[in-house]
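new request in #modeling-help
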Amino acid sequence: MAILEAKGVHKRFGGVVALDGASLSCERGEVHALLGSNGSGKSTLAKVITGVVAPDAGEIKIRGKVEAPRSPADMRRLRVAAVYQDLSLIPQLTVAENILLHEEPRGRWGFIDSKALRRKAATAAEQFAEALGRSIPMDELVGNLSPSEQQTVEIIKALARNPEILILDEATASLHKGEVDALFETITKLKAKGCAILFISHRMEEIFRFCDRATVLRNGQTVGTVKLSEASEGDLVDMMVGQRMDEVRAGRGQATRGKESQEGPEKFQREGSQPVVLRIHNLRAGDGAVRDVSLELREGEVVGLGGLQGQGQSELLKAIFGALPLESGRIEINNNPVSISKPMDAIRNGIALIPGDRAREGLFPVRPVLENLNIASMHRRSAAGFLRARREEAAAGSIVSDLQIKVEDLSHPVHTLSGGNQQKVVVGRWLLNGPRILLLDDATKGVDVHAKSEIYAIIERLREQGAAVLLYSSDDLELVTLCDRVLVLYEGKIVETLSGADLTENRLVSAALRLAPSGNGSEISPGRAYDTGRDNMGRGGLHGVS
Amino acid sequence: MESAESVGTRTRTNLWQRLLRRHLITVATASLLVLAIAMNAILQSDFFTPSVIRSNLTSFVPLVVAAVAQTIVILAGGIDLSLGVIITLVDVVVVRLIGTSSSPTVLALCLGAGLAVGALAGLVNGIAVAVIRLQPIVATFATSFIWSGLSLLVMPRPGGQVPTFFYRGYRQVFLGIPVAAWIIAGVLVLWLIIKRLPLGRYIYAVGGNQQAAYATGINESGVKIASYVLCGVFAAIAGLCIVADTATGDPFVGAPFTLTSITAVVIGGTRLTGGVGDAGNSVIGAIILGLVTNIIFFANVPSFYQEFIFGVIVVAALAGAGMLTTRRRSS
Ligand SMILES: Nc1ncnc2c1ncn2[C@@H]1O[C@H](COP(=O)(O)OP(=O)(O)OP(=O)(O)O)[C@@H](O)[C@H]1O
Ligand SMILES: [Mg+2]
């Protein structure tokens, strides 16, 4: 008997249809993938199951019994827990307080027993932190954590609720391979205990590695459920995008072409001959989060920043963009020293930074999509200081169709878009500014396969036009796919540069952990979670179809 | 693997720095308090004599309690623009009920009725915000007219009296400490109790991120209503203190407390957007405001400059608090 069943779920938000007859069924001990492109209704369905969103029609059965939950608290009692895509943490509370929010152990007089709370939270964190090989600071305010640390806390929070049905809505979007491995271990344990896990992710390799079956949504409707042992990535993408498959193939072809050309010797010639656009000398920033970094970025070059999460990659990008004050060091653009003390200076110098942390650094949630897209490049389209609505609409319209942003109307507030579509708005805003130097800070987080390849194609186009790109990604595959070379950071310093044949996912992982290079990667981490089993499907991943 | 383990601690500051940063606001507010006390003491030679301390505390109490009331709703992400008139309503209802009676039992019942009036007014505000889902500013601005209308119905013009032992008692010293100080201490203890109950945690959570609180299973409407009811009860306590202080009723007495309580909250470093702050700091903020009024009085400033200077000092204090909170943004 299915432990979780959803049947014919409908949900509208104003004029927008989010769910239009979505169904799924999930067994005990099963990891069930929920797939679909951005805006197809995955998060909405997840929220209907946890009671956050009330459906217009349809039914939810838990353990065979129809439930009509009226609030998340009701579903909590049925042992349903979730990691939400738009995080459900309170930034002003500490990690421990967040993990046990609404589960506080009570002492005498009904007071919160703070000691017991810390202890319980630490225990909950342990089972996951152990696999992670890293401690989690219990007394830090959640708002001071990096996106991937917050993500980890959110996962621990869900696990601490001891769920029988666990929903992971893009819980891995800002996680690195090591952390994903840790999550995988935890999921395997839960599975053995008979839990059901609903897993939402845009990273195909994770789907094949974690999940038993997959249900695909398109435009709010369930297209079908397949056994993953019997399906290929191509089948799934077909189901996800329907008739758009040909376009997807074309887009992906473009994206992978860049990669293939890197493998030839031609790439090294290009590196030597093109003028240097951005040069950084001994840069230090963010209280030593970035230390002594020097690098050169040439015209038409895509350079990656690798390493474990939180090794100063984001801080480096922010410092170049003027969002973080330089403590020492120099920045030269086109061989001229520049002083960048605030983002406006950077923008004037043709720099754009696309952040992955859209909630904190990217969007104006209640403002229309149109404004959000135009805000960085308004001056390009204004006349005598006045805004030109027609030109703004044209510019926004073109980027919306390029990136396939799913939005009913440009006047809708951006917070009503699905997570991935919000991220595309952030990307689109900076692409509209025609940057000469493009900095990406995990910019494709939560973006679906199709749009990702679209973004890759745009990066490729910009590179051909002579732009230089410096990018950080928590997705190693993205670094390998896009970059000419990758600088691996450790504790704020560049410890290794990988390029050409050395630029593989295995080498990235071992360099990040500062291990000696190894041939097949099996020695990378004795007895640890960093197994490289994923290599078998690495090529079967993003560009498997070609 | 050792290398990977050290990662988590690298960017963490040491414990002392962290404590200082966490309590930066308290430290800043406390320094401001010391400064205000010093200036006041310089201008007023008998500032530290017991009788002056007592009379100062007595006059500060209503604002201190009102500031605690306002902090609670602000922490939960709301605001109460009707707080001043709730104080008025409690004031006139209590004086009207006491009438000419001088029996302690009647007095106790009347004080209880005052608290109930405050709680009820808070409940109405809470329902307007959490159930009818009006914006807190609009909702409480609207209800403020209801409370002030009711006050005028109960008592059209200042008057009435209270038993002598009541207003005398308010100025007494008990166990070597003025009653006013006991009241402040009592209010702080109440606040600490609230803060240690799950409700206190949920008030911060709802003010910090309402959707997240809801998704975590917290009854966010319930928490908001509770915050307004608590605010009403504390406002009522402030009203009772005013009755004891003035020994009479006045249908206009509370109005200024709405804005001064918000000012005290901000000087205390509580963020108006909710989720960050502490009622303890608002108590200090309220005392600072009281001292500033004293300073201006004793500095012999011509009366037409008094408001102006009061305004300048308050803006400076607010700017100081603001700078401390925004300076940390880039870190
Ligand atoms: N609160 C809301 N108000 C208006 N529209 C909404 C709201 N929430 C979701 N939608 C719309 O419902 C549709 C489905 O959104 P949903 O977040 O479920 O997509 P998703 O499959 O999770 O996408 P993604 O992969 O980008 O996270 C989208 O078109 C979105 O714009
Ligand atoms: Mg989603």
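bot summary: Residues A 42-43, 85, 169, 418-419 surround magnesium ion (ligand 2) (CB under 6 Å).
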